[in-house]
Design brief:
With 185 residues, the chain is an all-alpha fold. Helices cover 82% and strands 0% of the residues. It has one domain.
Length: 185
């Protein structure tokens, strides 16, 4: 199996896991119930999904060697986003929700913002290397939309702007995985 195929499959698997997180994510009231129930499981899956997507984006970044500097900048930015999102997931899944609410929201906002910047950078690299122009346009649009929303104070409720951003990002990740796994090494 080629590196591109493995990386593509990692992106697709991560996207599927993120969809599961979107579907099963508890509301604030459900999460406040305490204990190690669905909230803990969902946030553990979210962490594994983010790490799987990070692994896939490493393969993507290596593949986009024609725009190496931009792809590397995107990967480093996304790695920082992943760290922020993991901290948010830990806060929401294991720390008491009353204490973790602001911490979760802050790190989630940073994580989504950094992920949007990474998506724009990867999209520019995709455009320059002719990886997929349509995918590049979609990724750039999602990234710009996300940043515009965050800069205008849109919160990240999962059943609002945050859910829409996660869904669009997940579509981009899965689509990228499908294109990447079909590319020659």
């Amino acid at each position: 199996m080629t590196t591109n195929r493995r990386a593509g499959l990692a992106l697709i698997a991560g996207a599927v896991a993120i969809l599961g997180v979107l579907i099963w994510h508890p509301t604030g009231r459900e999460a406040a119930g305490g204990g190690y129930g669905i909230s803990t499981v969902v946030h553990a899956v979210a962490i594994l999904a983010e790490l799987t997507v990070l692994l896939g984006t490493l393969g993507l970044s290596v593949h986009l060697r024609g725009a190496r500097d931009m792809a590397l900048a995107a990967f480093v930015t996304y790695a920082a986003a992943t760290m922020s999102l993991i901290i948010a997931a830990v806060a929401a899944g294991w720390i008491a929700p009353a204490v973790a609410g602001t911490l979760n929201a802050s790190f989630a906002t940073v994580g989504f913002g950094l992920a949007a910047v990474a998506m724009i950078l990867w999209s520019l690299a995709m455009w320059r290397t002719r990886f997929s122009r349509t995918l590049a346009l979609f990724g750039a649009a999602v990234g710009v939309f996300t940043l515009a929303g965050l800069l205008h104070g849109a919160g990240l409720p999962l059943h609002g702007f945050g859910g829409l951003v996660m869904l669009a990002f997940t579509v981009w990740v899965a689509w990228t995985g499908m294109v990447l796994k079909g590319q020659a090494a």
